[in-house]
Amino acid sequence: MPQNCSQLQLPQQTAKLTFMKYTLVCCVVLLFVITALCGCQKSAGEPFFENLLGKWQIDGRQVVETWQRGKHPDTIYTAQVVENINGKFLLREQIFVTRQNKQITYNVYIKSLRGGGTGKGVPFRLTSVTDNKAVFENPQHEFPQKITYQLKDNNTTLVTEVSGSMDGQPQSFSFVHHPKK
Predict the structure, then answer these.
(1) CA distance 160 to 176
(2) Are residues 29 and 62 in the same domain?
């Protein structure tokens, strides 16, 4: 017969302690797995924009489009379009790719030739995306209604197509860019 009650409780306490340790280890492993999965998950469009990062010069023109990661939580990528006219660098466009409620939007701010701007960005919603192509659309915009970026030749060529309807007639034009060295 045991000499005191504490000797009776020892096997039960050991079993409870082992169960608690096991539960704690399982929770830590589960937390690690969830954290790893969340960290590896890329949002829609991210692989495409990661391939777009850097400076792209339009063939035959002194225009450079520079893409970088955004610095604000809602702005995931930004771009500036700068043109060299007689040695003066003029900002032509600013682009902010934003994410709100899982919707990615391409917002473009156009600068006029006289140095002024529209003051208000024109939003284009991301309607389709792959690792090498992104399509943005705004059916209510005057022109363009669609902007398509496509990476080609193993990401060494960028083709931007601007399209839509102008005065009831379909219109489109494209720019071919290569990485600026």
Answers:
(1) 7
(2) no
Beta bridge partners of 72: 75
Q: Report which residue type is found at 151.
A: L
Tell how strand 122-129 and strand 133-137 pair up: antiparallel
* Degrees to nearest 5, angle at CA 86 with 84 and 92: 30
Residue where the block lists tokens 């704690």: 24
- Residue 24 makes CB contacts below 8 A (sequence gap 6+) with none
Each residue of 136-173: pLDDT tens digit? Answer: 999 999 999 999 999 999 999 999 999 999 999 999 99
Each residue's pLDDT tens digit, 83-141: 999 999 999 999 999 999 889 999 999 876 555 555 678 999 999 999 999 999 999 99
Buried b (16+ CB within 10 A) or exposed e, 61-93: eebbbbbeeeeeeeebbbbebbbeeeeeeeebb
H-helix or E-strand containing 49?
helix 46-52
Whether residues 122 and 173 fall in one domain: yes
121 contact partners, CB below 8 Å, separation of at least 6: 96, 107, 108, 109
Q: What pTM was computed for the model?
A: 0.73
One domain for residues 65 and 91: yes
